[in-house]
Amino acid sequence: MARLQKAPVVYVLGVVRFPQLVDIDQLAAALHPRLRDDYPHAQQITAPHVSIEIGDDGLHVRNEEIRIWQFSSLDRKWAVILNAGMIGLHTVDYTERMDFFARFGAAVQAASEVPDAGIRFVEALALRYVDLVEPAPGDGVADYVVPTVLPSEVPGIEGLGIQDGVFAARYVTGLGNMRLQVLRRPPSVFPPELNTPVTHANEWGLVRPEGDFAVIDTDHGMSFNPPAPLDVTELKDNMLKLHGPIRSIFDKVVTGHAMSVWKGEA
Fold first, then answer.
1. What's the burial of 218, exposed, middle or buried (CB within 10 Å: 0-12/13-18/19+)?
2. Between vectors from CA 220 to CA 229 and to CA 206, what angle results, nearest 5°?
3. What gap in Å lies between CA 250 and CA 248, rounded to an integer?
4. pLDDT in tens, 136-158
5. CB burial class (10 A; 0-12, 13-18, 19+) of residue 135?
6. Which of 171, 216, 228, 265 satisfies CB 3.0 to 4.6 Å to 131 for a cystine?
7. Taking the model in full, what pTM does it have?
8. Of 151, 171, 170, 173, nearest to 162 (Cα)?
């Protein structure tokens, strides 16, 4: 797949879920020295979390707070995130997939090498891409995103103009589940669940374009039941497998003109 010179990707997240640890602080304290050369900034962040439990006496929804450790690069464009059941890597400075997978694998490898508290098993693996589609001068969003997924005006009604909209669908792949959202003129570039204290801590407040624009948000995940022993080489191979359908669906929902612009040909 050809690399896009002017790629619209603005955020990428990779996550490994593992069986929940009793003492996450022990892992965090031992992990940061192993990551400090690449991620010197350490923060502990409290974030809201909704817990839903179903028991014999019905469904219970609880608002809770969870503690998240974040280790950020010197320029704060990359960060490793960690809580009691998850480790991830996210960035607003993505260049290409193999670089991302190498960094992701290195962080997980470091977490697996911590004595006693290290990660040993994998329950799930997921990858998420957020692309910001800003038309070039003289172009419109419809020149970049195919009409089947672009929220648009209802034809035949005079004076009715679209203010915002969302296309959303879930798909089953040979690996797991994939989700696609195309948001037109959303309130912020980050989808709501990514617009959190974790991204705010790195000052990743992406500037919302003033004109018409769209956000393509795609994630793809796989799970392991029972949990699989952690193998970082296999983990990176699985991330590459998850990436394939994400790129394929991206290529189908954008136009040839968009690809020409992002390749620097137009």
1. buried
2. 115
3. 5
4. 999 999 999 999 999 988 888 88
5. buried
6. 216
7. 0.91
8. 151
